[in-house]
Design goal:
By secondary structure, the chain is α+β, with helices and mostly antiparallel strands. The chain contains five helices and five strands; from the N terminus they run ββαβααββαα. The longest helix has 23 residues. It is globular and about 55 Å long.
Length: 124
């Protein structure tokens, strides 16, 4: 999945990182974002660095822990996510429509997979 924004493409890992930031009510720290996404801290840090350079996220000092920055999505990052979702949903609906009679079985299997994944990472 890629979206054109700010003259640059967003990769799937970048979008995956922006989505929880878009819906967060409080800033994240990179460690908690890595845990939530099931990714390495180094990978998250590298992706956050690219997103910050391109203006999609902001990192500010954490007053509770100087070693960990607070990560928030910027207006440009929120716009990228908001612009991407309708297009992505349209593609996914098209894929599901192509399943014909098997659509309900596949959809139910995907629901179960999401529930199992959320339970595993402690968000279900």
């Amino acid at each position: 999945m890629q979206v054109l924004e700010n003259e640059a493409l967003l990769t799937a890992p970048e979008v995956d990182m922006l989505i929880p930031l878009r819906h967060a009510t409080e800033p994240f720290i990179a460690r908690s974002l890595a845990e939530r996404l099931g990714l390495s801290r180094a990978g998250v840090s590298k992706t956050l660095g690219r997103l910050e350079q391109r203006g999609f996220i902001a990192r500010t000092p954490n007053p509770a822990d100087r070693r960990a920055a607070l990560v928030t999505i910027t207006e440009a990052g929120a716009k990228a996510v908001d612009d991407l979702f309708p297009r992505q949903l349209s593609v996914e609906i098209g894929l599901l429509d192509g399943l014909g009679e098997d659509r309900e079985r596949v959809t139910e299997a995907l629901r179960r997979l999401v529930a199992a994944m959320e339970a595993r990472v402690g968000h279900g």
